[in-house]
Amino acid sequence: MRNLIYIFILIASSNIYSQTDIEIDELFIKYEQEYLKMNSLGEIDNFELANKNFYSKFSNYKERYKFEKNKDKERWLNKNHKRTDFNSATEAIDAYNHLVSSKEAIDKMSNNIQEIRNELLKKYDVNLIWETLQTRIKSKR
Q1: Measured between alpha carbons, how far is 118 from 20 in angstroms, rounded to an integer?
Q2: Which of 70, 80, 85, 108 could bridge to 57 as Cys pair (CB 3.0-4.6 Å)?
Q3: Integer-rounded Cα radius of gyration of the chain
Q4: 8 A C-beta contact, residue 44 and residue 107
Q5: Dihedral sign from CA coordinates of 103, 105, 110, 115
Q6: What is the pLDDT of residues 27-53, one digit of tens each?
Q7: What is the model's pTM?
Q8: H-state helical runs in the chain
Q9: What gap in Å lies between CA 75 and CA 89, rounded to an integer?
């Protein structure tokens, strides 16, 4: 029983020690900064709003399905904007382009974060990375 307690203490202390290593790792600090930057810029909110604004203009699901299935989205909008609640083809295309650019911005930031995370995974456990990130975010609030 005593050995079991010693093993538990050893494991707990090694986790604490490893978490302090990751906290001072420059790569982890960069990962944390990129993560916080993505969440603070409001890009996710911009995308959600653009998504809502664009897709709410489709009056029925059949037209939305036809749009989604079409390969040339701008051409479809140009020809079929009257099947939607957009006032003009220009308004429809502008809303679509805003949606696409918002999605691209999120994807770019996500890819940067993922690349850094992949490098961190070579050094640290996935749970340690996530728990350390969450702990540091909570401590900054």
Answers
A1: 20
A2: 85
A3: 23
A4: no
A5: positive
A6: 999 999 998 888 888 888 999 999 999
A7: 0.71
A8: 2-24, 26-40, 43-55, 61-69, 73-80, 89-121, 126-140
A9: 9
Q: What is the predicted pLDDT for the residue at 6?
A: 47
CA-nearest of 38, 57, 59, 58 to 102 is 38
CB contact set of 133 (below 8 Å; sequence gap of 6+): 31, 32, 35
Name the DSSP letter for residue 84: B
Which pair of structure tokens corresponds to residue 105? 């911005």
Band (pLDDT 50/70/90 cuts) for residue 17 is: very low
Give the span between the Cα atoms of 40 and 48, in whole angstroms.
Answer: 15
| pLDDT above 60 (res 16) | no
Compute φ and ψ for 58, nearest 5 degrees. Answer: -90, 120
Q: What is the pLDDT of residue 19?
A: 52
Please report where in the chains the tokens 């006032």 appear, as a residue.
87
What would the two tokens of residue 85 be?
Answer: 């609640």
The two three-digit tokens of residue 100, written as one number: 């696409």
- Pairwise CA distance, residues 48 & 46, whole Å: 6
